[in-house]
Specification:
five-stranded mixed beta sheet, Immunoglobulin-like, 7 strands, about 0% helix, mainly beta, single chain, two-stranded antiparallel ribbon
Length: about 80
């Protein structure tokens, strides 16, 4: 992720490229999943619009082959 403070779009980079079996999810701090998308095979970058999210803190998780990477982001308006 390029930054953890987001206003309208979250960009996630992958050095090796995403695969279709990767799941990217956005959840609020209570654990409620508010957005999910599968990776697009071969893309090295994913853009997620945060326009429909309220201002506040969220967790972004990327799950692949049983591994999970989670980062906290802040959506500002």
């Amino acid at each position: 992720m390029r930054s953890n403070i987001i206003s309208d779009q979250l960009i996630i980079d992958s050095k090796t490229g995403f695969s279709a079996n990767e799941l990217i999810s956005v959840s609020d701090l209570s654990g409620r999943v508010v957005y999910t998308v599968n990776g697009v095979e071969g893309n090295t970058q994913m853009a997620i619009s945060t326009n429909k999210l309220s201002a506040g803190a969220y967790l972004i998780s990327v799950m692949k082959n049983g591994s999970r990477m989670t980062k906290k982001i802040i959506v500002q308006r």
